[in-house]
Structure formats: structure tokens, C-alpha cells
Amino acid sequence: MSDSPARAPDVARLLDAAPVALGSLDGDGRLRTANAALAALLGRPVAELLGRRVAELAPPLGEPGSWTSALASALRGRPSTVRVALGNHRAAEVRLAPAAGDQIALAALDLAERQRAERSLARRAADLEEVEALTHLGSWYRDEAGGQLVWSAEMSRLYGLSDGTRPTMAILLERLPAEDARRLFDAHRELVAHGTPFRFAHRVVRPDGSVRHARSHGEPVVDANGRLLAVRGTTLDVTELVELQDALHATTAELAEARLRDPLTGLANRRLLSEALERSLARLTRREGAVAIVFVDLDAFKAVNDALGHARADGVLAEIAQRIGGAVRPADLVARVGGDEFVVLLDDLERPTTPLDVARRIQRALSAPVVAVGHDLRLTAGCGVAVTRRPATRPDELLRRADTALYQAKQTGPGGLELFDDTLESQLHERHELAKRLAGALERGELLLHYQPEIDLRTGTVVAIEALVRWRPDEEPPLTADGFVDLADDIGCLADIDAWVLREAFARAAAWCRTGQGTPTLRVNVSGRLLGTPDGASLVAAELDAAGLDPASVCLEVDGHTAPRAGPAVLAALGRLRALGVGIALSRFDTAPATLDFLRASSVSQLVLDPRTVLGLGGDPFDEAVVAGSLTSARALGIDVTAVGVERPAQLDALRRLGCHRVQGHLLAPPAPAPWIDDLLAGRAAVTVPP
Description:
Elements: H1 9-17, E1 21-25, E2 31-34, H2 36-42, H3 46-49, H4 54-57, H5 66-75, E3 80-87, E4 90-98, E5 104-110, H6 111-123, H7 128-135, E6 137-143, E7 149-151, H8 153-159, H9 169-174, H10 178-194, E8 198-205, E9 211-222, E10 228-237, H11 239-258, H12 270-283, E11 291-298, H13 301-308, H14 310-327, E12 333-336, E13 341-346, H15 354-367, E14 370-372, E15 375-377, E16 381-388, H16 395-411, E17 417-419, H17 422-439, E18 447-456, E19 462-471, H18 485-491, H19 494-514, E20 521-525, H20 528-531, H21 536-547, E21 554-559, H22 568-580, E22 583-589, H23 593-601, E23 606-609, H24 611-615, H25 621-637, E24 640-644, H26 649-658, E25 662-664, H27 674-682
Parallel strand pairs: 16-17, 19-20, 20-21, 21-22, 22-23, 23-24, 24-25
Antiparallel strand pairs: 1-2, 1-5, 3-4, 4-5, 6-7, 6-10, 8-9, 9-10, 11-13, 11-16, 12-13, 14-15, 18-19, 18-25
Helix pairs in contact: 13-14, 14-15, 19-21, 21-22
């Protein structure tokens, strides 16, 4: 049987093995499925049958429109029959029955074979039982003069009677359900009275209680004068056909359900979520209430994927899906809408705080360790919540609000939770407007570079200069990178900004070298977005070559919070650049496991302490202990350490005491345009280091 590739293989094999010619049609009469028996009957391979109109493959005998009327009848829920020509003077009877959706089940019988079988039965009575057993076709004959009923052994088998049971009309009727018995009795009476043949489907209840499905046909036997002599007929056991049809219906229903489910977790997919959300919002027009969306996004799940591989990470996602399902109310719908993104639809809210309560339960459920490859994974998730009582709210609008709240929750750190309100709406609008302006900032020349020196406290000399990108939109005060880099990443222009920064900074450093103003190391921030591209390392090398700059005079600074989770492509790019002689600095250094793993795998030559930790020096013993531990680790690895964000003398004193000699910050020199650095290197300006 050829059908959708998602069909269950056991059903397909069962249908292909069926001796009866079976298939299914769409509403236009085109073959959707066909088993081997049907292909043999029509004399064509299955592949040539699918999509063809059955009326073209087997033209009807008799009225030309018989196929049209039979299809229409089946689509209205009534079985129908068409006799068709097969070629070579052969004919077949095709029976149509309604199936799921707009499908029509088809079974075809070769009339020539049946006629030959009947003639063979007449010629060779000894073969009767064998033939009938093979075809499941029983025969019966009732003499109207004497009222004697004779039936074949196949009829006894169908009705579950012993061989010695004498057949009577009463036995036949009592084996049928009451409704079917009345129909058979009325049809037989009409046949006797008016000679009207009958053909109908019915059930047979055997003595053991089992039910068989059958199709019976009866017709009159008359003499030359038209006088009724007898009634004869056949009963075909179509139980297997009905069961196959039921299986086909069930499979169709399963396929329809599968189209609405996420294959990994079994949760609803986007399509089912969209349909359910539309219904929930529509109900608000008929009654008061509220509909809520809880948008759930796992924090840093990419690192889990990278560490475990997709197969094991999928197992973790399946566990997460079960936990989310267990944390919501029974009537709530949970959908998986992305790799590590889930949405919960809440209807019939008992109280205004219900969505937040559900979100917190989800976060608590996800906080328990997940065991994977013998290790405990501790996961967190950000949640964004949006609620509406207005029936005019569009489904996509409610989802967008929840997504906006989720974005805000993610900004607060792992495990954040936010409820959408007017403030978020205003922030979203401002962010949207800012994004539109940022998209054209490069073309309008709105980006510029400031430079900040790094000082060696032991000598007071400038040992490095960091290039810091600024954006001045529409002549407004410049924004620092913290104000627009994440937005640039979201709208897809961060790699272009990185490339511009490299080009401008390399050109400026090359100019310093040419004028003999000294050659401190140039430190440039570069994102994992650029390094993760296939030609990221090649682009850096090309810009160095174009500027004529010695790679050893450059140090690329990568973010210690994002780079360790950026994947193997970034590691490979850093390895290629390190081989050229370029220094690699890891900023916002901490001792998180992911950071230490990255440090072990990469060729980092310098660590830049997290400014938030440096901020507490000179007053917070914990921050001082963290910095001391970082310095000890770096010394053991032979890596230089720079402290940035030094703004108070107490911080400087603590750094001296801890033995961190490379510092940078407003206390020494704030970021400044390139001409001030020109003066600094030329000796026309100076940096004063507090004692």
C-alpha cells in the first residue's frame, strides 16, 4: 500500500497482504492509496495509479455518470457500488464507502473471477467448501414450494453453527441483531412478493458472542413464465475488510493528531496552539473571563546541546516537557514552539495571579536536577506572561506580548519572570524605533571609536589601548556598546559592526606605528557572532594584512559569558588567529565551569576581570577573595590579568595589594577620541597614577 510516508508500517503491510483489492480515494475520485491486489486488478504498478482518476483507470459499465453519482453518494455517507470494465472483456464491481475526512474507502471484486467460481461450484460440488473458504463467500438456496433452506459449509462457518445443524430461516434471523434481522426479513418478503433482488450489509452474532460483518445478496429464481421457484443468494464475510477499514480510519485519525503534536515531546505544536488560542479568545465574546500566555525559554540550553549532543539533549527536553505538563492545571495547553521554547495557554482563570502562580510552579519544577549521562544538570528558565480580557485581542498580539515580557525577564538574568504591562509596551516601542535607526547606523556614519589606555602600575607606562565602539544617533550623546550591542545582535548587524570596528581600529594602530609614537598592544572587542561565521578568522587576518599591522600587536577580547557557549566554531577561529600571533583576551572572567572549560580548550593569553567584581574591591571581602582566586589561577597558567572599571583609589590599593599590576579605568584615564591617544603616545599628554 503506498500512502503518506508517516503511515504505520504494520498497517501498510497488512493492507498490502490483503487478498481483496483495496484503496482509498479523495473527493475528486483520485486514488490516494492502493494495495498490491488492486494494482494487479487494474494491471498497473502502484506508483502509476496514485493520483489518477479511478474513472479513467476503470470506466463504468452502463451509465457514463455512474462514477460521479457513486462518489457523491459515498461523500454523503452512503456506500455505493459501480461496475467497471477492466479490458479483455473483464469487469469488476467496485464498492465505495465513506471514510475519515473527505476520503472514500474502495474495495474491488473481479466479477469474472466470481462468475468463474460460481460456474466451478456448479460443475464441481466437491470443490465448493474449499473455494468458499478461500473467498469467505457462502451461498444459500431456499425452495419456495417446500420452504427448504440449503446453505453451504461457509455459511455455517460464518454463522458459527456446527456441521450437523439444519439451516432454517429462523436460525438465520436470530443470529442477526434485531435491526439487521428486520431489514433481511423485509427484503426477503419484497423479493418473494415482487421479485426485487436485495443487497445489503449486516452483522452476524455467533453463539460465542463474536461478531462478523457480512454482505448478503438475494435474487429470485423463476420459470419460463416468471413464476417464483426459489430464492438464492450469497453472503460474503467482509469482517477483515471492515477491520482494515477501521484500521485505516484509526490511522488517518492518528496522522491527523500527529500533525498537531510535537514529535519529540508529544506536546501541542504551533498549529494546535494557534487553533486553541483562537477558540479561547473567541469565547471572551460570549462570556467574561481572561486568557493568558506563559512563554517559557530555557536559559543557556545551547550549552547543554553542545555538551551532550543533540540525541541526549532531546532526552533532557522530553523530561522538561513532562515537568512543565505536571506544573500546569489539567485544562491548560502546553506547546513546544521552538528548540527550547514552550508556551502555556491558560483559560478560565480563577484569579488574576493564576498565570504568575503557574509560571512560578514551572520554574520550581525545572529547578530540580535533571540526570543526564550520570551527571546532574541544573536548569533555569525565563518566563514571560501576558493576560487579556479583550476578545478583540489577536492571537499573534497576545503571543508577542508574552514574548516581550520574556525578553525583559531574560535581561534580568537566569530564572527571570516578567508580566507584560504598559511599561513593557513602551519599552518595546522604544526598542523597535532604536532598532530601525541602528540598522542604518553604519551607512550614515554614526559609529565612532573611543580609546582607553591600560596602565602598568609598576612603571606607569601605557601597555595597551582598548578600542571601544560608540554610537551617536542623530547627533545625540553617544551610546556605549552596552546600550546597543545586544540589539545589534538581535537584528543581525553585529558582525558587520565588528568588522567595521576591526577595520577602523587596525588602521589607527597602524598609523601610530608609522609615526613612531610607540607600539602598545591594541585590544579590540569582537563578538562570537563574527568569529562563529565560516570566514570570521579569515576576515580578521585580511583586515590585519590590509592595515599592514603586525598580528602580535593585536589582542582580540571575547566575552567570557557568551564565548564559552558559542560552540566549536568560535574555538576553531580563535585557534587559527592565535597561530597567526594574535593575542586572545577573555573578558568578564569568572570561575564558572563553562568558563574554565573554555579556558582549557582555547589559547587565551590574557584575562580581563569582571568589572562587577572589581567594583567591590576595597570594601567587599568576598569580591577581593574572588579576584585573588582568579589571579592565582592565571599565574599558574602563565596568563596576564587586567582589571578594568577602576574608579576609586580603594580599588587601586586592593589591586596593588593582590599583585594585579595591569589596570584600566576612569580613575586613570577615561575613554577618549583618537587625538587624545595621539597626544598621549607623543608625550603631549600624560596619565597620572595615584600613589
